[in-house]
């Protein structure tokens, strides 16, 4: 194990220590002491859905705080940055539990989706809401005496609002199945709101709020850069949903049968012949194994995998160039770390 790997391991272990602390805090809220069974259920919901991912969003929050704070970094604030990182991870869990129900997904991170666990079904909707409500209990406990508490709440609520609207557009687009409206413009709007804001902008925005950075020009530059990272991330997700190794991704793809406005479909529609387009429109969005394989064959025949590789290389190069153009008072190492974590990812 080299130094960078050892550091990453140590950072994750320290991050996990904070998870156990805040999970314990959530189970010991005095006003909820007369609901022991529900508290234990919350523990089960948290432990199943929150700590088992790569934790890139949470760890990016911590790294962002360290780099923005510089020589003003304190041990107390570093612990608070860990807490904020877990707020982002819990928000992610809330979105994933909800998304899996809406998409009818089977697995997540190599195990059955939460709503599939013990045949929970739609009762899991309330569990998703429990997860979201935990965020504000945590923020209240750890930050209510901080001058930036209201701003933290504003940032978290705003990004949650944007993400829910993005999820709505994504879900309704798939339900309506008006495939003639599946354009790159619509795709970009779905991705921007469903994925980019909470996955890439939120961790940095929270760290900047902690450190008192509120220059609109700085925020705009950071937002534009992180949204580009998020777009690349979602295109990768679309590709892995179709062509990824389930044993690596831990998730069985459903984009084709869910009639998603995905990067692959939009790109294919621009490339295909009239005959291929007719076939694609007839078989896309149908939950039938033969038709799903037929869609994948059309994608392969059109060279979509090669087009994806070309896109990823171009997007990565463009993002790195924009990092170099950042103002000198912004931590370039943070943004290189964020984009390098997702470049050429397989899960």
UniProtKB/TrEMBL annotation:
SUPFAM superfamilies named among the record's database cross-references: Terpenoid synthases (SSF48576)
GO CC terms, sorted: cytoplasm
Protein's pathway: Pheromone biosynthesis
Keyword check for Isomerase: no
InterPro entries: FPS1-like, Isoprenoid_synthase_dom_sf, Polyprenyl_synt, Polyprenyl_synt_CS
Keyword Transmembrane: no
GO BP annotations, alphabetical order: farnesyl diphosphate biosynthetic process; pheromone biosynthetic process
Record keywords, A-Z: Isoprene biosynthesis, Magnesium, Metal-binding, Transferase
Required cofactor names: Mg(2+)
PANTHER family membership: FARNESYL PYROPHOSPHATE SYNTHASE, FARNESYL-PYROPHOSPHATE SYNTHETASE
Name used for this protein in its record: Farnesyl pyrophosphate synthase
Organism expressing this protein natively: Orchesella cincta
Taxonomic lineage of the native organism: Eukaryota, Metazoa, Ecdysozoa, Arthropoda, Hexapoda
